[in-house]
Amino acid sequence: MTSSSGVTAKTRRRAALGAPSVADPPTAAALKLWVVLARAFSAVSEVSKADVERHGLTGAEFAILEALYHKGPLLLGEVQKRILVSSGGITFLVDRLASRGLVERLACPSDRRARYAALTKRGAKLMREIFPAHAAALHDAMAGLTRAEQRAATGLLKRLGKAAARRPASGA
C-alpha cells in the first residue's frame, strides 16, 4: 500500500528497523535478482538432495558418479573442477566411493603421479538404475518454466556467471 507521499508500507518498515533504502533502481534490481536466484537454487537443490539421499549418497558423491557415468574415466583434477570441491575433498570423496565399490582409481599411462577415477561395474549399474529417476525429479522441479523459458534462463545465467567470474573479488 502506498501513501499519498508515495512511500510504501514496506519502505516505512525498513526505515523503522534502521535498514538503509536502496535508492538506485539498478542496484535494487541486482539485489532482488540475487535473492530470487538464491531461493530458486535452494528449492531445486532440496529436490535433488532428497532424491540423492534416498540412495545413501551425498550430493557431492552423486556428482562424482554422474560425471563418471556421462564422461567416462576422468583425471581426479578434472573431476574436482567439474564438481567444485577442493583437492583434499575429491580425494576423500573418491576414497569413500571406492570403499563402497562404486569407483576405482586407475593409473595414468602418461603421468605416474596422476590418477583416473572410473566407475566400477557396480557403480555403473547403480547409475543406470538411479539416474533416470533423478533426471525425472529435476525435470519436475523445473516444470515451473516452459522448455523455451528454461533455455532462455540457461543462456542468461551462463552469461551472468561468466561476467561475474571476470570481475575481481572485492575485499570491501
Brief write-up:
With 172 residues, the protein is mainly alpha-helical. It has helices at 9-16, 25-53, 59-71, 76-83, 87-99, 121-141, 147-166; strands at residues 74-75, 103-107, 115-119.
List the helices and strands and how they pair.
Layout: H1 9-16, H2 25-53, H3 59-71, E1 74-75, H4 76-83, H5 87-99, E2 103-107, E3 115-119, H6 121-141, H7 147-166
Helix pairs in contact: 2-6, 4-5
Radius of gyration equals 22 Å
Strand content: 5-15%
Straight-line N-to-C gap: 36 Å
Shape: elongated
Largest sheet: 3 strands, antiparallel
CATH architecture verdict of the domain at 55-143: Orthogonal Bundle
Q: What can you tell me about this protein's structure?
A:
- The chain has 172 residues and is mainly alpha-helical.
- It has a domain at 55-143: Orthogonal Bundle (Arc Repressor Mutant, subunit A), CATH 1.10.10.
- It has seven helices and three strands, in the order H-H-H-E-H-H-E-E-H-H.
- The protein has helices at residues 9-16, 25-53, 59-71, 76-83, 87-99, 121-141, 147-166; strands at residues 74-75, 103-107, 115-119.
- The protein has a three-stranded antiparallel sheet with strand order 1-3-2.
- A hairpin with a 7-residue loop joins strand 2 (103-107) and strand 3.
- The longest helix is centred in the N-terminal third of the chain and has 29 residues, at 25-53.
- It starts with 8 loop residues before the first helix and ends in a 6-residue tail after the last helix.
